[in-house]
Amino acid sequence: MADSADNADSAVMTGVLSREQHVADMANYLRLGEARAVELANRGPVRLNADGTLHHDILAAFDKHGFYVFEGVVQSAELDELRHGAEDMISRAPVRRGEKVDAFGRPALGHDYAIQPYLMVRPLSDPWGGTAALGGRHPSKMTEPVPDADAPENVVYLMFGMCQAMPAALRLYGHPDLLAIAASVNGADFVPYNDAIFVKQPGLGGSVSWHQDGITHWDSPHWDHGIHGFNFQVQLYRTTAANGLWVLPGTHRCGRVDIKQLVADSGGFDRLRDAVPLLCEPGDVTIVNRQTLHGSFANTSADSRVSITFGFHRRASVLGVTGKLSLKADDLRWQDGDAYDETRIDERSAVIALAVDARSQHWPDERRFCYAPFAGREDDYRFNEATFERYIRDYNTRDLAI
Question: Is residue 276 part of a domain?
């Protein structure tokens, strides 16, 4: 457990810190968090039973802590493709917010997408903390260090629409081990949520204030600790305590957490006691229950982080439910949507079926996952130009967000 004196000895967090001062001020907290993460031993390779389900020991650890780190899931050849695709997508972002061209003078990617693929922020900023954004689930502001003098006006914070913009990311969406994990956690008829790529450029990346993802089911008579689903994060580079996601283990079982009180209990600092960082090597994949309290600090370190994030739900959690957190194409706000019926669920889930086939075409010797809701319909969902236009083009307008 972190000593409360560690926070007291830190620089006053409400003061103005330079990037370098933030690095020094965070050092002890990061070191203690790393030690806590190692003690949990909540990590290891994917282990499947003979029937393709996830090993009981891993399910039990995930159920207890609300997260797990799967080591070495994505192999080097695929990792190289994902890195190339992500870096290309980053390079094609608008030169600054509102611009139509990238840094090379080319038309920025996504001008014809229904949902613009980039969310850009001021370097080292916290765009949501202490605001009503995203259902008010980010009630406390993170520290916003002052970036170096040569920092750009805006940096890429999130990238959307990966299955449309990155062929390698669509194939990743059909990874047999990851889909087997999803089926083991949420049932064979699991459904997709959404996806986004978090970008934490060295010395520039913004923070994500402490929050729980779920919005819809907190007061449901059927509430349990898995009702809001989970997210995978596929790490393209080494993820450290300085640039990575932090979680507060076990909070997925606590219902709504009083985040402001936790911050107060930590001396008014954003460095919550007992939180742990998700330490990863390239190709590792984390799974985090969406009700687990989590967040990340401004990336004042010298290390880049690119995390390909996509989530899944139980079918029962979305069927007939009025959607929330659906990203609107016009203003990058998250608002209530319509009730999710079988047709909406089937159309969004078709992306999984197409991803499985796209992956099978690209990696023909790999085990192919059988996605139960589309079993027997595989010939109708072969990946080709026509099915791309029908199901992948602007697929994220049909996200199932709760």
Answer: yes
* 286-306 per-position pLDDT tens digit: 999 999 999 999 999 999 999
Residue 179's φ and ψ, nearest 5 degrees, are -70, -30
The pTM is what? 0.93
Provide the residue type at 110 as one letter: G
Domain CATH for 17: 2.60.120.620
- pLDDT tens by residue, 212-255: 998 899 999 999 999 999 999 999 999 999 999 999 999 999 99
pLDDT for 119-133, tens place per residue?
999 999 999 998 888
Count of alpha carbons within 13 angstroms of residue 233, beta-carbon side: 25
Q: 106: closest CA among 121, 116, 118, 91?
A: 91
Q: How far is CA 182 from the centre of its chain?
A: 15
Q: Give me the domain span that covers residue 104.
A: 4-316
Domain assignment present for 271? yes
Residue 179 within a domain: yes
Residue 19 lies in a domain: yes
